[in-house]
UniProtKB/TrEMBL annotation:
All copies of domain AMP-dependent synthetase/ligase, residue ranges: 96-480
GO molecular-function terms, A-Z: acetate-CoA ligase activity; AMP binding; ATP binding
Every AMP-binding enzyme C-terminal domain range: 542-623
UniProt keyword Isomerase present: no
Gene Ontology CC: cytosol
Protein name (database record): Acetate--CoA ligase
UniProt entry keywords in alphabetical sequence: Acetylation, ATP-binding, Ligase, Nucleotide-binding
GO terms for biological process, alphabetical: acetyl-CoA biosynthetic process from acetate
Amino acid sequence: MPNAIQSFLTDNKVSNINYNVSGDSIPSYDSYKKLCLEAENNFEEFWGGYATKLLSWSKTFSKVLDDSNKPHYKWFIDGSMNVTVNCLDIHLTNGNSNKNAIIFESDDGDVSKITYKDLFVRVCKFANGLKNLGYKIGDRCIIYMPMSIEVIVAMHACARLGIIHSVVFGGFSSKSLHERILDIGASLIITSDYQKRGGKQIPLKSAVDDAISLGNCDSITNVIVYKRTGSSINWLDDRDLWMDDLENNQLDYCAPVFVDAEHPLFVLYTSGSTGKPKGIQHSSAGYLLWSKMTMQWTFDTRDDDIFWCTADVGWITGHTYIAYGPLSLGLTQVIFEGIPTYPNSDRFWKMIENHKVSIFYTAPTAIRSLIKSSCIDPSVHPDNFDLSSLRVIGSVGEPISPDTWKWYYKNVGKENCPVADTWWQTETGGHMITPLPCLNYLKPGSCSLPLPGIFASVVDESGEEVPNATGGFLVIKKPWPGMIRNIWGNTERFRTSYFPEELKGYYLAGDGAQRDSDGYFWIMGRIDDVLNVSGHRLGTMEIESALVSHSKVSEAAVIGRSDDTTGEAVVAFIVMKGDKPSNEDAVNIAKELRNWIACEIGPIAKPKDIIFGDSLPKTRSGKIMRRLLRSIANGENINQDTSTIENISILDKFSISF
Ligand code: WTA
């Protein structure tokens, strides 16, 4: 991030002294330091203490950590519990029973609310329905649903019974859905007829039907459908069921299935540096503990908070900071079905004003697009709304540039709210490096300091710590309860991707980083072939293999270039079978390829630029020279060493982008 580094050099600090921590969070910088020291000196006691204090166990654990088979760490040995007991049952008797758990606002603006008690009953009824159908602990369920109260019910009903859920983002295509159904060996799919986003009705059930028709899905015994719009869909009588029919007439209590602390709560797929997405497997107890701790620490949560995380449940942020973290703490949260720009780009600010949101958590890509809109149309500027309910504002998913940070801090937070620039990943389960509200100062563009118990560092290729102001690999030196447990069905890939031997067994995050003289971390972006488009991780290899599976494409190379709105944009270099297309033909072929990618992966992976050539620049050993392509895509002069390039003349022959 050139911007971040620039700011790093000028040491741009924003004083945070106005903020008074008064929740159950970390009250001061001194207490933060003390906790860090405690974790260092008494590692197991530190984690064991929180696990005892914050979680309700049906059987207490006998040992905090088993590290005898690294990197297969096990936490809270012999302990058993149920995640939904910790998110729902506990609130029936602690005074939260009639408190709103969820304030749901639909795409059209309709608002419905559900209390903790009612959410508990819905989860129990739905879980009883699933139980009657024969689903049980260890089964796998794909959830492909819109943002709704129902998706939370579905996730928790699975967790109630020990069924492992895998939520697939509603923007993924039936092809991607199919790949995930097979990989996880699902026996159940929960979906909805349609989803509504930005005034449009998008079919989901038909994508499920298409995915199943792609074959080898005999393991699927039921498709349960939440009726969102009631528009017509295809129906298979012996397989498909309406969600409300299943809930009706069920008892409103379902006994929780207590699971081992390490039982997988869910598997969530994310892109890696090979063509196949990775199923990131999380635990039950350790994951929930870290969700709850980070929720409380990072956002300094209080009983009367109205929390709003704008992520989709299809991503890890929607798991940790919508489905699990807020409920574990008994908070009231807003869940939003729609998009920030519909019906106008003031939707977020209107909703903060209407629901009196006190903690707002969103992504830089959304902020960038709203900055743009408010420049074009001042009536959608946040200044036109009463945002005085806000206390903490957060950012997630990608680097936030100092300029965007400052706009957010000034115009949304009114220079009164700390900006939690939270660095973390699908694999880490929860926040890892983030500015706590108690920090004395914030630095726009830096995610600041690791949380207590998190031993983050920047190292070189042999695992040695690099000096401050030097770039290197971001690693975590010790395990933590919320960490990834495995890649579903691929232990070997788990070990080699995340714990490479040369890095001394440290967890390798896949990001480059550096630290400044205050120890603040600056994330410099991915070091592998993964792009970050609007906060969504996309593997270049995944897009390349989808492109070459098109009948007209011979070779493809995908790289990222910087983009004002989406952070990074996908650029595809294409060599066709046959001749390079004329400019007229190229327009149509580019359109065809974009549609192809939307079907193969999903619309988020569509290349923004498509550039045609006669061949790709390669070294003599046949490796595509991606750095060179990156320069071309970013419109930079090629001043790198091209002496190893075999086919140098091809550089002049790339088309303009389509
Ligand atoms: C990037 C999202 C800079 C990073 C929670 C990471 C960030 C990847 C930040 C994980 C941040 C996330 N600053 N970069 N605050 N947060 N990233 O798995 O490259 O979807 O490795 O998890 O997003 O993306 P994922």
